[in-house]
Amino acid sequence: MAVLNIRVEDQVRDQLKDMADEEGITVSEYVRNLVMAAIVPGYEPEEDQGDQPAPTTMRIADRQVLSLLHRILAHVVPEDDSEIDPRSQLKSARVIESGFTTEYWREVAGFRTELSKRDCERVLDILDMFRMITFSIRELEKDGVTVSEELSHELEFEGFDGNHGLESHMASYVEFLMSDGKWPELRPQLDRNDGGNSHSPVLDEYTRMLAEHRRIKASRDRGFHRKAYLLSLEELEQIAAARIHPSRRG
Fold this sequence. Notes:
The protein has 250 residues and is an all-alpha fold.
């Protein structure tokens, strides 16, 4: 493990000591956690993850395009179509053409705020981590190494919290990815956890686990063997321990 030496003012050192004491850890551990958080930063909400807010105004060019699309749909969609109502399309065209701004919500109804590229990539990283954990446990058990039920449970992918704005959005992304047959080895874990609803926020826990997993991968050269990515029992225990906040570790 690499060692970093930094110089700070006495006042900064004292403040770090106070903060570390509050969490019951050493200054070195506290600073290391801050560095790991910088590598895998915790989420800071920038906007609501609910429905996309309706626009308060539109450019005339956008209004012309939307109006034309609504009128085209009204004429090409069969009247018995269960998803698109021709009369509703004509009504929406009239709203856009007349500039009734309080009715613009029709254009974004059902649209969610975007899940940022960064958060999408975090979901992918989390899924990859849990896949590697799952494969590692399987290989260890094949080799006769006992992985306790408690440890297996701590390393299980529970999905995300359905009542949390960001996490519920991440959960829907997971479902979208798995609908294409990706990460099938994690599906049984989601099924055991109410279909992937953790019922409590877990992103911070996953972030700490991911930081530890990245540290482990960076600590040694695994080569190019097909099993080179597998984790040892000790490494699995380290990742499971990282799930617990430093202030609550025994």
